Every structure is written in C-alpha cells, then in structure tokens.
C-alpha cells in the first residue's frame, strides 16, 4: 500500500499566496482608478497612490494608500477626500473603490 504524505501547511501557504496575489491585483485596479480621479495641481498626491501588502496579523490584507507624511510630501490626502472648513471635498478614493467593485470581484473570483 502506497503511503500518502499530507502537508496542510504547504497547501495553506499556497492558497494564501494566491489569495494575496489576487488581492494585490484588485488593489492595483482601485489605485489606478483613484489616480484617474484625484484632482491634480502639482501631481504630488497622485504620485503617492500605492498598494501595500500588509505583513503580520492580519497577514491576508492589502491597503490602497494616498498621501504620505514625508517632509514636503502630500500629507493632505484626507483633506482632499473629505474637505475642510475652507475647501469642498473632492473624493477620489471612495469613488475609486465603488467604481472598481465589478472588476475587483472578477479578479477575486477568476484570477
């Protein structure tokens, strides 16, 4: 009788990697849409839109970020998205996510 080796940790790691690859691909769709929607004056904010694969818990997660805290960087992404007492909101991240739902679902379901 042949002996079958069972290594569930390898299977789990492969499934997690494929899921993360799909999530990252879906995040890139959202980021591209956000780049097309963001108001552009200098281009600084548009250049900061990026997809980040998180590490640690929860390890199966990606984020799409806009803005940065680097000195002289585009720290004002939230002010553009939500507005301030002096400026009207010009949302680009939420519309990008909402406008990409069909494409992201397709990526998650079909690769």
SSE inventory with pairings:
Blueprint: H1 8-37, H2 44-47, E1 50-53, E2 62-65, H3 77-82, H4 93-99, H5 101-110
Antiparallel strand pairs: 1-2
Helix pairs in contact: 1-4, 1-5
Identify the notable features of this structure and list them briefly.
single chain, 111 residues, mainly alpha, 5 helices, 2 strands, 51% helix, elongated
Quickly count the helices: 5
Strand sequence of the main sheet, in spatial order? Answer: 1-2
Computed Rg:
19 Å
Question: What about the largest sheet?
Answer: 2 strands, antiparallel
Structural class: mainly alpha
Shape: elongated
Describe the structure.
The protein has 111 residues and is mainly alpha-helical. It has one domain (9-98). Helices cover 51% and strands 7% of the residues. It contains five helices and two strands, in the order ααββααα. The chain has helices at 8-37, 44-47, 77-82, 93-99, 101-110, and strands at 50-53, 62-65. It has a two-stranded antiparallel ribbon with strand order 1-2. A hairpin with an 8-residue loop joins β1 (50-53) and β2 (62-65). α1 runs antiparallel to α5 (101-110). The protein is elongated, with a radius of gyration of 19 Å.
What does this entry show, briefly?
The protein has helices spanning 8-37, 44-47, 77-82, 93-99, 101-110, and strands spanning 50-53, 62-65.
